[in-house]
Design brief:
homodimer; alpha/beta; Rossmann fold; eight-stranded mixed beta sheet; 11 helices; 40% helix; 18% strand; globular
Chain lengths: 256, 256
């Protein structure tokens, strides 16, 4: 099962991605958690120290090695069971394999087009066991969609909060994900504080596209200044996210 | 005075940009408010109807016209007093001229490199009167910095909220802005709810780099579901931002 998580900046993509990573990891399969945001913070959210994550080779550096092995051909099936690439470029935490797209760059040096293009090729070529999951935490906004970075995933998860701007972004994401040929799109409503806010989201999307409503968490907000794990500070949020993961699994046909 | 506003997704860049736009507009000069985020929402925040903003030609389309006029040369000084480009590509609201970088694209079509490159050339070539201001609301995160879109501004404003992730992003932004040669960098602390949160920001940056602490606004949060002007719902926030604008003006040497 290959998933991508997107949405407007600040809606809680990384917290949601971290929760999904940990929940699917508990089912026993390998979870490949990929930080696809140049402004990265997924590592810390799943419990990997920031300095360890910073030492990790970014996946874009895999490109030349893969080209050599495949004889320069465009087609390569990456099988983590027999190929050592994934081990070399990932940080292992239980059955989570954390990977990151690219390094911070120098101001004015270049864009992240190369990283995005390679990440798309990598995720597309990744051959998974039935019980394995890929979760890509995308950058804020819509450029990764105009680039097509997540083309090839089974489902695009769009996180929204009760704000008009985040709903507008989600509608752009939905349209562009459809244009990319992504077969399933699901909305996760986050930071819900009232029935009024829930109704706002409910009235903005067709009911069957909403995978769940996650309550606003004072604990996670208060914890944002600490380096610790956001998802560990709120068990209720994790329980709500388990229901969302069940639905995702049901839709995509994964094992849970 | 040319300013750019950046920071992690969700910290309140657009609300801050809208407040600065309205405050400088009151001083009498022309304010060029530029939405440099493909996932745009500055227009609505300064009071321009979303459908009007969507009809506006994006500045990237100016490129070929300017090339023709300048005979294909790289150097062109754009003087809004005598050139009609800015009128053709901007929405006028009092003495605010709103411009936007680019159009939404099709999923998987292309990146926004071309838009970013042209926007940099445009802002650099813009010849301002002493009383005029350019405010660019940048996309979330750091890619606009690795691209150098805002190279040439007088000051980079970095918005942070009391979270470790937004402070980490701000430190990347500071480093990259310095690498771009931007002469002044200022931090605006937003969404402050307690003395503890204020101290967290204060301890994260040198004191003289912090331009102000903006209190968390329940009114703005509650208003996020409405299409109305965020900055009009909270007069206290506007008053706090006036003090920030005074400091910006003092540092850059603009008129206020």
């Amino acid at each position: 099962m290959k998933l991508a998580i997107s949405g407007k900046g600040g809606v809680g993509k990384t917290t949601i991605a971290a929760a999904i990573t940990r929940i699917f990891a508990q089912t026993g399969g390998t979870v490949y958690a990929i930080d696809a945001d140049p402004d990265a913070c997924l590592a810390a959210s799943i419990g990997i120290p920031e300095d360890e994550a910073a030492k990790l080779k970014p996946v874009v550096e895999m490109r030349d090695v893969i080209r050599e092995r495949s004889g320069g051909g465009a087609f390569y099936v990456l099988n983590p069971k027999v190929d050592d690439f994934i081990n070399d470029y990932s940080y292992k935490l239980g059955n989570i394999r954390f990977l990151r797209m690219g390094d911070p760059k120098k101001g004015g040096s270049e864009c992240y087009c190369r990283e995005n293009t390679f990440l798309n090729a990598l995720v597309t070529s990744l051959l998974l066991d039935q019980n394995d999951t890929v979760i890509m935490d995308m950058g804020a906004g819509i450029e990764h969609l105009s680039r097509g970075t997540a083309r090839g995933v089974d489902m695009m998860l769009v996180v929204v909060e009760p704000s008009r701007n985040s709903v507008n972004t989600a509608k752009h994401v939905e349209r562009m994900a459809r244009e990319l040929g992504i077969p399933r799109i699901g909305i996760i409503a986050n930071k819900i504080r009232s029935e009024n806010e829930k109704q706002f989201i409910a009235s903005s999307f067709p009911g069957n596209s909403i995978l769940g409503y996650i309550k606003f968490s004072e604990a996670i907000w208060a914890n944002a200044m600490e380096p610790s794990l956001a998802v560990e500070v709120d068990k209720e949020m994790l329980a709500e996210m388990k229901q969302v993961c069940l639905k995702i699994s049901g839709e995509v046909g994964g094992k849970f």
